[in-house]
Amino acid sequence: MPFTKINYINLQHFNPFHATQEELIAQSLNDSGLITEMTTINDVPARELLEIFFAKRNMYRNATRLGTVLIESGKIPQEKLKAALEYQKENKNMKLGEILIKLGVNTEEEIESSLQIQSKKRAGT
Q1: Closest by Cα among 7, 9, 17 to 61
Q2: Is the pLDDT of residue 36 over 70?
């Protein structure tokens, strides 16, 4: 089988959750439907790299959710977040921030500042 060498991949977008080049290539090949059980990247099974990529991405997503940011900054207790998330299940068209403002749990300013923190975290700054 021919050898393929790839250099200089732009990882900046994936930097906040520290995806490696190999993990990113595995994810891209998977999205394209090109992974088989035999696919390896630098002698590591591509499926194994995919599992690592998705685990890192999920941990990153959980750490940067609005509710997590609000709890970490002390702007909402866990019970109020749970209640708002339950409310959201019945009102799927509403964003969490809108619900928290409507329920009087947070102010617009608190939500806006938390969204700015979330954005900075997601940008890796």
Answers
A1: 17
A2: yes
